[in-house]
UniProtKB/TrEMBL annotation:
Transmembrane segments: none
UniProt key word Signal: no
Entry GO terms, CC: cytoplasm
Domain of life: Eukaryota
Signal peptide: none
Name listed for the protein in its UniProt record: Leucine-rich repeat-containing protein 14B
Organism: Galbula dea
Family statement: Belongs to the PRAME family. LRRC14 subfamily.
Keywords associated with the record: Leucine-rich repeat, Repeat
PANTHER family reported for this sequence: LEUCINE-RICH REPEAT-CONTAINING PROTEIN 14B, SIMILAR TO PREFERENTIALLY EXPRESSED ANTIGEN IN MELANOMA-LIKE 3
Length: 515
């Protein structure tokens, strides 16, 4: 619902030429209203001029685009390339614009509220993801420095100092540019302040170099994800040499830990890493998927001072002792998001798992149990465990060998969870050939009866319809959930994989020649 003020703002900015000529007479308090209206209509030139002449102390994208009294729709998930580029170039020109009809008061620009989602509603359909935003801000910062050095810049521009809060995303392809921008940020009016940092496809030496440039004392989220070969000894060096006092969320790459080849020195190293994480007083989100942690979960998590709200230990080969610790730990009562994918929970430690579920049920919002060998005989037990989870908003259980009949039974129950909005369910087992084995490998993932699957999906949707739960979004993403970062950098990721494959072949050929 739009207020009359918002409708008027839309009418004002819809004529870009008229609006741009009229900003000199616009009251300060109307700039946020005009900005959101311009963003909705994708009026790039108007957005640029609004930012260039911004009269307020702060510019917070999340608040500006979020739900407001005048227009309740949240636009922060629209990563429209036209709008975002206009914002950033407008910010550059804010520094250079002299004289301006407004006093330059801007001190903080917060770009962290932008959300990258799969479906875009902007008309241009061209997005600017986190990697591209990182690239453009670094580029504009350096261009601004060069321009100010090469031209007779007005003295007022030299006094401007604006902290630009951003979630940086660095890979091999934009590394050099971002390093230059971070190295020179103290000389630039636009000072890049990294609040969250993600690294993919980056050599370890480069990662260590750039993480020091980000000012780790400000970092709240650190994601080291794909193709960064960080192992336990490197993690210990990272924690011993760099302090992260404000870190809330930590994601480690696959195979960071492997307790199968542990020595006594490795045990001491793991203990030290646990202590270092314990010094991170605000750490409440931890992802360690695809590491081998068998029997060592307590050693890592018990030193933590704050209870975890998010824990991802998918495919970590947890044993009974690990699950017993987790179920009885002080973390259990605070877990809002939990991923235990890749563990045979119903056979190996059902009582401990359901005890954990019971402790977290009052706060649990997201539960992921993919490839957990949940079968038809386990559905009633699963329903019993999920019944107290009345705040559950997201439930993902892809890759489990459930029949279409079991799925219908489960869906009838899921309709009773009042806050559940997202469900990712597996292709029913009876849609696959009889000889299929679980977990299903990628080569056989699509070898199912698509017509039968569509028929089952229609029945499941009818169950939702009869229960008045059209608000629930149900799907079967065969190759996993959408990852905005991977989607944006898939060309680079593909190139990296081809290069790695080529290097492996060359090593293999060399070994054969030596033989």
């Amino acid at each position: 619902m739009k207020s009359l003020r918002f409708i008027s703002a839309e009418a004002f900015v819809s004529n870009a030429e008229f609006a741009r000529k009229s900003f000199g007479g616009v009251p300060h308090n109307l700039f946020p209203l005009l900005f959101k209206a311009s963003y909705l209509l994708e009026q790039g030139e108007v957005i640029h001029d609004l930012v260039e002449n911004w009269p307020l102390v702060d510019f917070n994208m999340g608040k500006l685009l979020g739900a407001t009294v005048d227009y309740q729709e949240d636009l922060s998930n629209r990563t429209c390339a036209v709008c975002l580029e206009s914002c950033l170039t407008g910010l550059r020109d804010y520094v250079l614009n002299h004289p301006s009809p407004y006093e330059k008061r801007l001190k903080v620009v917060d770009l962290t509220g932008i959300k990258d989602v799969e479906v875009q509603f902007c008309e241009c359909k061209k997005t600017m993801g986190r990697w591209a935003r990182t690239q453009l801000l670094a580029k504009l910062s350096l261009e601004l420095l060069v321009y100010m050095q090469q031209t007779q810049c007005n003295p007022g521009a030299l006094k401007i100092s604006i902290d630009v809060l951003i979630d940086l995303f660095v890979t091999e392809w934009n590394y050099e540019l971002v390093v230059q921008a971070l190295s020179k940020k103290w000389y630039c009016p636009l000072k890049i302040c990294c609040v969250a940092f993600r690294s993919d496809n980056l050599a370890l030496q480069k990662f260590f170099h750039i993480i020091k440039l980000t000012d780790p004392s400000l970092l709240r989220k650190l994601e080291i994800v794909h193709n960064v070969r960080l192992e336990m000894e490197h993690l210990e060096i990272l924690f011993n040499t760099i302090h992260f006092p404000l870190l809330v969320s930590l994601t480690l790459p696959a195979r960071t830990f492997n307790v199968q080849r542990f020595t006594a020195a490795d045990e001491r190293m793991l203990t030290n890493i646990g202590k270092k994480m314990g010094e991170m007083m605000q750490l409440t989100e931890l992802s360690m998927s695809f590491s081998i942690l068998t029997g060592r979960l307590q050693k890592l998590l018990s030193p933590l001072k704050s209870p975890l709200k998010m824990l991802d230990v998918s495919n970590c080969s947890l044993n009974h002792a690990d699950m017993a610790y987790l179920a009885n730990s002080f973390h259990a009562n605070h877990l809002e998001a939990l991923d235990l994918s890749g563990h045979n929970i119903t056979d190996l430690y059902p009582s401990k798992f359901f005890k954990l579920l019971g402790h977290s049920s009052s706060v649990l919002r997201s539960l992921t149990l993919e490839d957990c060998n949940i079968q038809d005989t386990h559905v009633n037990m699963l329903i019993l465990g999920l019944s107290p989870c009345q705040k559950l908003q997201e439930f993902k259980f892809l890759g489990n060998p459930l029949s279409s009949q079991a799925l219908k039974h489960l869906f009838t129950f899921l309709c009773e969870l009042p806050m559940l909005k997202t469900v990712e369910f597996p292709v029913p087992r009876d849609c696959y050939p009889i000889d299929i084995t679980y977990p299903i490998d990628d080569a056989n993932l699509c070898r199912f009866d698509h017509r039968k699957y569509e028929s089952v999906t229609e029945e499941l949707n009818r169950i939702l319809l009869q229960a008045n739960r059209e608000d629930m979004k149900v799907s079967t993403p065969l190759f996993g959930s959408y990852d905005a970062a991977v989607q944006e950098t898939n060309n680079e990721l593909g190139a990296y994989l081809i290069k790695s494959f080529k290097e492996t072949l060359e090593k293999f050929t060399t070994s054969l020649d030596e033989l």
